[in-house]
Specification:
Distance between the termini of chain A: 73 Å
Protein name (chain B): RNA polymerase sigma-70 factor
CATH architecture of the largest domain in chain A: Sandwich
Structural class of chain A: alpha+beta
CATH superfamily of the largest domain in chain B: RNA polymerase sigma factor, region 2, helix turn helix motif
Distance between the termini of chain B: 31 Å
GO molecular function, one term (chain B): DNA binding
Helix content of chain A: 25-40%
Radius of gyration of chain B: 18 Å
Largest sheet of chain A: 5 strands, antiparallel
CATH topology of the largest domain in chain B: Rna Polymerase Sigma Factor, Chain: A
Shape of chain B: globular
Family (chain B): Belongs to the sigma-70 factor family. ECF subfamily.
Shape of chain A: elongated
Number of helices of chain B: 10
Oligomer: heterodimer
Keywords (chain B): Sigma factor, Transcription, Transcription regulation
Number of domains of chain A: 2
Strand content of chain A: 15-25%
Radius of gyration of chain A: 26 Å
InterPro entries (chain B): RNA_pol_sigma-70-like, RNA_pol_sigma-70_dom, RNA_pol_sigma70_r2, RNA_pol_sigma70_r4_t2, RNA_pol_sigma_r2, RNA_pol_sigma_r3/r4-like, WH-like_DNA-bd_sf
CATH architecture of the largest domain in chain B: Orthogonal Bundle
Number of helices of chain A: 6
Order of helices and strands of chain B: HHHHHHHHHH
């Protein structure tokens, strides 16, 4: 047999061992590099993967318990989503009070999130489990530069700051800055982040004065809440 | 739209962060993947944890699906199998240090029953046919590696042969398997 033929045969077996998980140490590292760099090897690897996967044809499906689905949702899409949504049921009362107090505007005008010319505003409530901190956030598309913040309950600890974070899907939290010391105020939203708002979760963490020095949350996350459409 | 195309479309939408598509994919595929976790791990609680991790991985990696050239179910099953095998290996390592008898008992309790074996007999993929062309213990070694995460050392111990002999055996078997699969 020619050297090239041997080479192909070696690769065929190597790819099978690779898919089965039989390679270790330096052999495994070499095979991984080959998978990255060599299209022929990649094709062999894919073929074996398809073939060995057929070994699972005989495995009967078993419906997993509902708690698995709930745990996944919790991990991916924000803790205790249902609980948060239930708490948001408090909003009509809070909103009326807030409107009366003039703490935020609800104006439907240009909505940057959707293609329709007129769209709804957005809001979120970030609340600590024990109610020690409640932060209400409203976003009015007609006033797109900033979020309106209202903090009916809670404050930063002495010498500390409350920092607001935007979490879009699985991306790392992006800081929106430190919350104003006053109970009502505004937090600027960079233009690039505005389209993400509608699908995001907002969170507040406890940080050193002036905000997280690292660009990522460093202290405890005090509360989080999904952004909802008004 | 065929079922596979549907699943492919779900994965594509998940890559764009579509939660509804993620829910639909879970509904369509979680029973199969849970079955695989149960088979590999033989422990219900651990299989539930594994399934959780697997769908978290699916959510994170959906964007990489298109480039690997696998069919959508193969891609999902490979994520599930590889994760379950990793867990099983970690557990074995922990057991060999701590000697956890509970886990061993749990494994014995939940070994696949006659029902699962009946399903096995009714479904004959090409690889099943080709494995029957190998000597039974060689075929068993291939299955052991795929479905139980056996290493060369595990297999050598089970068949009571030196490590290098095991390697040579299995590599030859894999070559013969390939010849059969490409026939």
């Amino acid at each position: 047999m020619t050297g090239a033929g041997d080479h192909h045969e070696d690769d065929t077996v190597l790819a099978a061992e690779h898919v089965l998980g039989l390679l270790e140490g330096e052999d495994l590292a070499r095979a991984e590099r080959r998978l990255e760099s060599n299209a022929e090897y990649r094709a062999l690897h894919a073929l074996w993967t398809e073939d060995f996967t057929s070994l699972t044809d005989e495995i009967a499906p078993v419906t997993p318990p509902l708690r698995v689905r709930r745990a996944i949702d919790e991990r991916l899409f924000g803790a205790r989503r249902e609980g948060l949504l239930r708490r948001l049921g408090l909003w009509p009362a809070l909103s009326a009070a807030a409107l009366a107090a003039g703490t935020y505007l609800v104006v439907t005008n240009l909505d940057l999130m959707r293609s329709e010319p007129v769209g709804p505003g957005l809001r979120a409530e970030i609340a600590a489990e024990d109610g020690s901190l409640v932060v209400q956030v409203a976003y009015d598309p007609a006033d797109p530069d900033a979020l309106q913040i209202s903090r009916p309950s809670g404050a930063a600890a002495p010498g500390r700051a409350l920092e607001l974070w935007l979490i879009a899907g699985e991306a790392a939290p992006v800081s929106l800055g430190v919350l104003p010391e006053d109970r009502d105020g505004r937090v600027a939203v960079p233009e690039a982040l505005r389209p993400l708002l509608a699908q995001a979760v907002l969170a507040v963490s406890d940080e050193p004065e002036g905000g997280s020095p690292t660009g990522a949350p460093t202290g405890a996350v005090l509360g989080a809440g999904p952004v909802t459409t008004l | 739209m065929s079922r596979l195309t549907e699943i492919e479309a779900m994965i594509a939408r998940i890559a764009l962060g579509d939660r509804d598509a993620f829910g639909a994919l879970y509904d369509a595929t979680s029973a199969k993947l849970f079955g695989i976790c149960l088979r590999v791990l033989s422990n219900r609680a651990e299989a539930e944890d594994a399934l959780q991790e697997i769908y978290v991985k699916v959510w994170h990696n959906a964007g990489r699906y298109q480039v690997n050239g696998l069919s959508p179910m193969t891609w999902l099953i490979t994520i599930a199998r590889n994760h379950a095998i990793d867990r099983l290996r970690m557990r074995r390592k922990a057991e060999s240090r701590g000697g956890d008898m509970d886990a061993v008992t749990a494994m014995a309790d939940t070994a696949p029953g006659p029902e699962a074996l009946a399903v096995a007999a009714s479904d004959s993929a090409q690889i099943e046919r080709c494995l029957t062309e190998l000597e039974p213990d060689r075929a068993g070694a291939v299955r052991g590696a795929y479905l139980a995460g056996d290493s060369y050392a595990d297999l050598a111990a089970r068949y009571d042969v030196p490590l290098n002999t095991m390697r040579t055996w299995l590599r030859r078997s894999l070559m013969r398997l390939k010849e059969c699969l490409t026939r």
